[in-house]
Design a protein that fits this description.
Blueprint: H1 37-41, H2 46-53, E1 59-63, H3 69-82, E2 91-95, H4 98-110, E3 117-120, H5 121-136, E4 143-144, H6 149-158, H7 165-180, H8 188-195, H9 203-219, E5 222-223, H10 225-238, H11 240-249, E6 252-255, H12 263-273, E7 279-283, H13 298-301, H14 303-306, E8 311-315, E9 317-318, H15 323-334, H16 339-342, E10 348-349, E11 358-362, H17 365-381, E12 389-393, H18 399-408, E13 413-415, H19 425-440, H20 453-461, H21 476-497, H22 503-516, E14 525-529, E15 538-543, H23 559-573, E16 576-585, H24 616-628, E17 634-635, E18 642-643, H25 646-651, H26 663-680, H27 690-699, H28 704-708, H29 715-729
Parallel strand pairs: 1-7, 1-8, 2-3, 2-6, 4-5, 6-7, 9-10, 11-16, 12-14, 12-15, 13-14, 15-16
Antiparallel strand pairs: 17-18
Helix pairs in contact: 2-3, 5-10, 6-9, 8-9, 10-11, 10-12, 15-23, 17-18, 19-22, 20-21, 26-27
Length: 742
């Protein structure tokens, strides 16, 4: 059922209203296979169902954290396949990480749509480049440069520019940014200046290194990951026959994390699409945290402008986090500014209440790490698995003190971003042993008198180092045991999801997961940067080092950079399902001067702190907001849809819903505002915004209580302008009004 642009269809009396809705996230690894279109829709909420059943034309899904976006789009693809409306081979789903693409492929297989291609932009482009290179260019495809930092170092040396380790990393990042924004070396200085880049070296020097780096690659017949996209774009632009061949293959496109699309990726997507509009994009502007790589939410925010006929669906039901976690996440965004903030989604938790977020202040960083380790140890003792706990920090250099503290506390941990699971030596050895046991069948003495699949796997892996009890302490031995234990748990989940499955079935599953990079969970506390945590979730999350200078980071100077830091903290908060800890240390080392302050982003949110811009007027405004505040969703008074955008919340209706505004009253209010603006020397919007005036003209309040309920009429403005506004609404002449700045 398709709704008009920007409107969500009304809920129907489906099972989701009676406890039948399945969680949007944290679902079992192995569900029963789905064999019909109707079965695909079971357990979806109304908005997810609308996404799943709207298969034609452009579709934009604005999906908040934890609202089941991956679930919605995979069920959309599966519904199209199961209903016969989409051919599996005609669908290309693209996302940004191998892990996300692997998870998508795994879900699609379970839903009976295993033939659908789900890849990263780079993976899809590389396949096309390798296939069409002989026809378009001739000869062999250049070799792919896996790590460009070594070439950048050599380029710097050739230019007689010495780069330290930090500068080398940052210059490499500048080259990547230049390439995804399609900026050539000669144009880099002007483009970087215009974009406000915080360059690590003189712009002319970086341009020189960039040009030399490109020459080095050409001389050695190599290309980097950005070249994969650039060359594919070049071929599709120059060879219309090849472009048409790809368009004949792929007729339907789904793009996940659309807020992270770079100009180059958008150009490639446009070439894939051609003149068609069979496109479904999913994203959340409030989770834009990679702008330093060239990502921009503009494509997401401008989608309705580009496709006026698009169906827009908003997912705001948060199935991941408790109301307490969601309340803090919403509070962070309520203080945000800028274009992304104007389109923020107000999440509504669907979970039972849980503990309040815990704030902790420590004298120094080691004390903070030790305190965090103690709290983690207590959670594990209370039954929270170590693999369901994460410590998140702003930069990777912060990890060392937490590694030490967890090791001292006897808590296992794993560093996010370390070696891929299926490439670990112990996993490769275990996989080989399982394949051998599967081939030998009943002739393997390890499997004598062992029938159940989990027991068979435990028996086989006991020969490779797995034991029923973990080894003491941490380090390499414990890491290897954790890998094998993850395989055991995977086998147990597989057996529960597929009764009667054999060891041979499991080895096939492992091979498919390896190809998809869909790794099982390792049971250790995750240590990760906030950027690396995007797309993941845990039962308990500890956000550490939350001081001004680290969050926001010290080199974030412009308003846009500060807002991206706020969004980064928002991403961290929304990783937590149940337990959330936020902490900071007042100095770097024991005995140091306590000069650090908690992150400004927590002002007004942590106990005892004042909100930004606090004062008597702001306090009164917050008091009114608390008095009228809602914990549940705000519904459109016309169609009943959940409202999420700031402008819609002011009007208490969807932008597209019919207005019952008194036009004459609105004009009188505008005339009065113009007088006030002139008298006070302020822009008109500082008196009341147009949206607030429209809301007043629609509500036509008759007394102060009704006026105070309108968003944008805070305590200060009620006191200052309330009498005038109520007089105008009553058809009377307003008084002179106040003109001082009290």
């Amino acid at each position: 059922m398709q709704a008009a642009c920007g409107q969500v269809s009304r809920p129907t009396h489906e099972t989701w209203q009676h406890g039948g809705v399945t969680p949007a996230t944290h679902s079992p690894s192995f569900a029963g296979s789905v064999d019909s279109a109707d079965a695909v829709l079971l357990g979806l909420d109304p908005e997810q169902r609308e996404v799943a059943t709207t298969l034609r034309g452009p579709v934009c899904v604005l999906a908040g954290a934890g609202t089941g976006k991956t679930r919605a789009i995979t069920h959309r693809i599966a519904y199209g396949v199961q209903s016969g409306q989409l051919m599996p081979a005609s669908v290309l789903a693209v996302t940004f990480t191998n892990r996300a693409a692997g998870e998508m492929r795994g879900r699609l297989r379970t839903l009976g749509a295993g033939g659908v291609q789900a890849r990263t932009f780079h993976s899809a482009a590389l396949r096309q480049l390798q296939y069409f290179w002989p026809k378009a260019i001739g000869g062999d495809v250049p070799r792919l440069l896996e790590r460009k930092i070594q070439f950048v170092a050599e380029a710097g040396a050739r230019c007689r520019i010495r780069l330290d380790r930090g500068e080398l990393r940052d210059v490499t990042g500048e080259i990547e940014w230049a390439k995804v924004t399609q900026t050539v070396p000669a144009d880099y200085p002007a483009a970087a200046l215009k974009a406000g880049r915080e360059a690590p070296r003189d712009l002319a020097e970086i341009a020189q290194i960039y040009g030399t780096y490109e020459q080095l690659k050409r001389d050695r017949g190599m290309i980097d990951f950005e070249d994969v996209l650039l060359l594919t774009v070049g071929i599709l632009q120059d060879r219309h026959d090849i472009a048409e061949q790809i368009r004949a293959q792929y007729q339907h496109f789904v793009v996940d994390e659309y807020q992270d699309v770079s100009p180059l990726q958008q150009r490639l997507l446009d070439l894939w699409l051609g003149e068609r509009d069979s496109l479904c994009v999913v994203g959340d502007a409030s989770q834009t945290i990679y702008s330093f790589t060239g990502a921009t939410p503009d494509h997401l925010l401008n989608f309705r402008t580009r496709y006026p006929q698009a169906t827009v669906v908003k997912l705001v039901r948060d199935y991941r986090s408790t109301p307490q976690v969601v309340h803090l996440a919403n509070g962070l965004l309520n203080q945000a500014k800028g274009r992304a903030a104007e389109h923020r989604l107000e999440l509504v938790s669907q979970r039972e209440p849980g503990p309040d977020p815990a704030y902790a202040e420590y004298p120094d960083e080691p004390a903070e790490a030790e305190g965090t380790a103690r709290r983690i140890r207590d959670l594990i003792a209370a039954g929270v698995p170590a693999g369901e706990i994460a410590v998140l920090y702003r930069i990777n250099a912060q990890s060392e003190v937490y590694e030490q503290a967890l090791a001292d506390a006897g808590v296992p941990y794993q560093l996010r971003g370390a070696e891929r699971f299926f490439e670990r030596p112990e996993v490769q050895k275990a996989s080989l042993a399982l394949r051998g046991a599967a081939r030998s069948g009943g002739n393997d003495p390890l499997l004598d008198d062992v029938v159940e699949l989990g027991s068979q796997v435990r028996a086989v892996l006991s020969s490779t180092g797995w034991t029923a009890e973990p080894p003491a302490g941490s380090g390499a031995v414990r890491d290897q045991w954790e890998s094998l234990a993850a395989l055991v748990r995977l086998a147990e989940d597989f057996a529960r999801g597929r009764p009667g499955a054999t060891l041979a079935d499991l080895t096939v599953e492992l091979e498919e997961r390896k190809a998809a990079q869909h790794a099982p969970t390792v049971q250790g506390v995750t240590l990760a940067s906030l950027h690396a945590a995007k797309g993941l979730e845990w039962d308990a999350v500890f956000l550490v080092g939350l001081t001004d200078g680290m969050m926001p980071i010290t080199y974030a100077k412009t308003d846009e950079q500060i807002e991206e830091e706020r969004r980064l903290l928002y991403v961290g908060v929304t990783r937590a399902r149940l337990h959330l800890g936020l902490s900071w240390g007042l100095s770097r080392a024991p005995g140091g001067r306590a000069s650090r302050r908690p992150s400004r982003f927590l002002n007004g949110l942590r106990p005892g702190s004042a909100a930004p811009g606090s004062g008597s007027g702001a306090a009164a405004e917050r008091a009114v907001a608390r008095k009228r505040g809602r914990r549940g969703p705000v519904l459109c008074r016309v169609c009943g849809k959940t409202l999420t955008e700031a402008g819609e919340l002011k009007l208490m209706r969807c932008e597209d819903c019919p207005s019952d505004m008194d036009e004459g009253l609105y004009e009188r209010l505008r005339e009065w505002r113009a007088v006030q603006s002139k008298q006070q020397g302020l822009p008109p919007y500082c008196v009341f915004t147009d949206k607030t005036l429209m809301a007043i003209a629609e509500a036509a309040p008759s007394e102060g209580g009704e006026l105070s309920m309108i968003s944008g009429v805070g305590g200060r403005k009620l006191e200052r302008y309330g009498a005038d506004v109520l007089a105008i609404c009553a058809g009377q002449e307003p008084g002179a009004g106040e003109s001082d700045d009290a």
